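Two folds, back to back.
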Amino acid sequence: MKLLFIVNPGSGSHDIDLKEVISTHFADKDSSVEIFELPEDCDIEKIKQKINQEKADRVVAVGGDGTLKLVAECLLNTDTPIGIIPAGSANGMAKELGIPTDIELALDVVEQGTPRKIHAVKLNDEICIHLSDLGFNAYLVKKFDMLPDRGMWGYAKATWHALWNHKRMQVELNIEGKHIKSAAAMVAIANATMYGTGLKINPDGKLDDNLFEIVVVKDYSYLEILKIWLTKIPFNPKKIEVFQTEEVKISSKHKVHFQVDGEYVGKVNTVEAKILPAAITVIT
């Protein structure tokens, strides 16, 4: 088997030499390994060129959800399986799929795991494979990216800042011709069930059911999310409302913060989302 590893050296807060760990792990195995380390100025076309050049049996994203998103965009609507080595700050999709956080164990999954088709969501010009949102959490992601501290401590500081500074939005959802208006602290477009922190925003989500969920958090109700995470009691619809759909248009009178798979995109007025069935293949 030929394996191509796409390594993001800037992911996470660890001091591990990822290239060395990968090379050592496969030194006495039959699989052949090629490692492509992302340069700072790397764009998606360079990654596509490398993937086409190597013609690997499996392509492996080594980094966080942003790195995985890049690789998934390159292999959208193909049968080439994508492996995941969780080396980012939160690694939400790896947790969603049950990929071990231990790098050596994750490397075993890359070689021995089973390919599985999952869907993705197209959001304007972006592809989402995990979770995206408008409002509070997107603002938090922006602040987190600006901090020198990575990891959970940096995330805690960014959360504290966002709680004090972010204001609620006025949004309108157009879901299959039905218009819903609401004040909201955030609106999540949820392909997966939980954030990289382990917090479940979308308990009933499935990666292969050809639907995604819109989660409208009407106020800063993280206690409500924690309640369902710990007790499995349904959301209080006065605080959090969930809609299942294949397609949605979300509008806001004023521009609001927007993030996709942990990467801050900017401020937008409108997001149009549509399901992409069985769009990528992952190794689990």
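---
second:
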Amino acid sequence: MPPLLEVDRLQVHFPIHQTALGRSPGSVKAVDGVTVHVNEGEAVGLVGESGCGKTTLGRAVLRLVEPTDGQIRFAGEDITRLPPRELRSRRRQFQMIFQDPFSSLNPRMTIGESIGEALDIHHLSSDRESRRVRIGKLLESVGLRAEYADRFPHEFSGGQRQRVGIARALAVEPRLIVCDEPVSALDVSVQAQVINLLQDLQQQRQLALLFISHDLAVVEHLCARIAVMYLGRIVELGPARDLCRRPRHPYTQALLSAVPVVDPDSKRSRIILGGDVPSPIHPPSGCPFHPRCPVAEARCRTEAPPLRDLEPGQQVACHLA
């Protein structure tokens, strides 16, 4: 069976406006040739530092940001250049949960109106009563009471608002949900509740998830596979357990070394990366990680490593792995 979502050599470049002297400094290469796929009912994690292009990739997959080059296929259909009218009819199959649960909800609409708007757009309720019942069931499915439908977003806590965002994404019965750091704005105590909710819904409804996060511990718990992103590119991809136990790329090793360990006697050594993340306007030649890599060789400065197969199910873009 082909993957539900296939992203092939996707690029998203944002042009920079001309300077006062009339010169164009180029473009921001937010996503620079990413290839990744998500199977039906599978959860795939996308991790990396802030600014590496994770959110842009997630938005490009849903065509909220237009790709510069490459291809996006959903359920075997190329949706990369679909016109807006045709794309709108496909959008029922893929939805998004946004990072900030407050700004993603209209403060002037009750949560029932916010969830019901999706039902109205896709003609999924035949009358007001069936619409009301469906909204109530959606709220109950995410751990909220049906009567909360008449309340406004400001009457809820951050965790409750994120549950509303999840209910809204589920309203149209999608096959894929892109989760853009859905717990990063929440308290630690609430994060676990939302993660467990997403895990339960994913298993019950056989949802495919593209879960974007900078927290490897959360991603390992929720996802079957993990893709590690650096400066707009995938540098390592593999089964979650294997990648977290035996990371091959130096960048993945550095990310994992920063994950807190419960055991106080653990002797894990922290890998500190030198320098700053290079600018996506002028990325380094060769391997994009070589200016900060603790094991870089001379060829890393000139030769860009492709994403190659390492072991069954695992890929890495590094000369030295």
